[in-house]
Amino acid sequence: MNTPMLRNRFLRLSAFAAALLLTGFSALHAATKPGKVLKIGFAQTGAESAWRTANSESMKAEAAKRGIDFKFSDGQGKQENQIRAVRSFITQGVDAIVIAPIVATGWDPVLREAKRAKIPVILTDRAIQTADESLYVCFIGSDFYEEGRMAADWLAKAVNGKGNIVELQGTPGSDPANERRKAFADAIVKHPGLKIIDSQSGNFERTSGKQVIEAFLKKHGKNFSIVYSHNDDMALGAAQAIEEAGLKPGKDITIVSIDAVREAVQAVVAGRINCTVECNPLFGPSVFDTISRVLSGEKVPKKIINQDELFDATNAAAALPTRKY
Ligand code: AHR
């Protein structure tokens, strides 16, 4: 090919690339035009816990406050429902999609569809495993590993590094269950007197958590003195199972949990649960702030992590009056 032909081809390709970029960006900027009502889809996991209810309410309330045309879909605990919801958001031509992924894997195909449609995807609450990080704009949520580590460190101190533990896991394959389990196991390795003697999923639900502890009490009798629960709903179910077995939760059996929903913080004050590590679900404002920034073409951090605290007998009563969920 001679030089003028090469130059021509180069100019045509540059014009094509510029047009592609312009279409992509102008689509985003058009979404933020004054007076335009934003259309945003949210694929929620379900309604398995008090935490989840608070999270859904925070998203709905913030969307209403901002006058957003908010499409909320309850996945009812099934990934296929969430994937179907995302596809329907794409068909409806939403400006952005928010997903709280129930499990960590299996998202790439539908995220590729959203990317092809030039719809930005924000992951919230739970992270995913993907080889292509460009499939979503950013993740907003808590550091689940850190929560598991905080729970284990608190426990080791509280029981002087000694005791048999049973574990109530969250939804199998979910990011919080994976990370909270791993962090706790990594941390208690430093305490040879602490041992997990059994572990089962209670699916982040109160009734299932109660049933698992009833079964553990039958199977292990008094051979465990600690329950580590991946969330408060299961911990509250565990406390009930322990009471019904004629034992005192919080005294005969130490309960350490995660979420810090109001009812669990109240249970800490009452001495039925010993400790709950916060996992703040109220991130409606930060999700919609981030979407606005993304749609106006701003670059946002890949990870936006909430800061969480821990509640035990030393601070739970003082915290109760200002708890928002
Ligand atoms: O992903 C966050 C977890 O999911 C919360 O700890 C739990 O309560 C919820 O169901």
Give structural notes.
- This protein has 325 residues and is α/β, with parallel strands linked by helices.
- It has 2 domains: 39-142 and 281-307, 3-Layer(aba) Sandwich (Rossmann fold), CATH 3.40.50.2300; 144-279, 3-Layer(aba) Sandwich (Rossmann fold).
- It is 46% helix and 18% strand.
- Helix 2 crosses helix 10 (284-295) and helix 5 (144-158) packs parallel to helix 6.
- Strands 2-1-3-4-5-11 form a 6-stranded parallel sheet, with helices on both faces. Strands 7-6-8-9-10-12 form a 6-stranded mixed sheet, with helices on both faces.
- The structure holds alpha-L-arabinofuranose.
**CATH class designation of the largest domain:** Alpha Beta
Number of domains: 2
* Major sheet summary line: 6 strands, parallel
From the N-terminal CA to the C-terminal CA, the straight-line distance is: 69 Å
The SSE order reads HEHEHEHEEHEHEHEHEHEHEEH
The tally of strands reads 12
Overall SS class: alpha/beta
Which hetero compounds are present in the coordinates?
A: alpha-L-arabinofuranose
Low-confidence stretches: 1-27
Overall pLDDT confidence = 92
Name the CATH superfamily assignment of the largest domain.
Response regulator
Strand content range: 15-25%
Amount of helix: 40-55%
Count up the helices: 11
General form: elongated
What is the name of the CATH architecture of the largest domain? 3-Layer(aba) Sandwich
CATH topology of the largest domain: Rossmann fold
| Lateral arrangement of strands in the main beta sheet | 2-1-3-4-5-11
- Whole-number radius of gyration? 23 Å
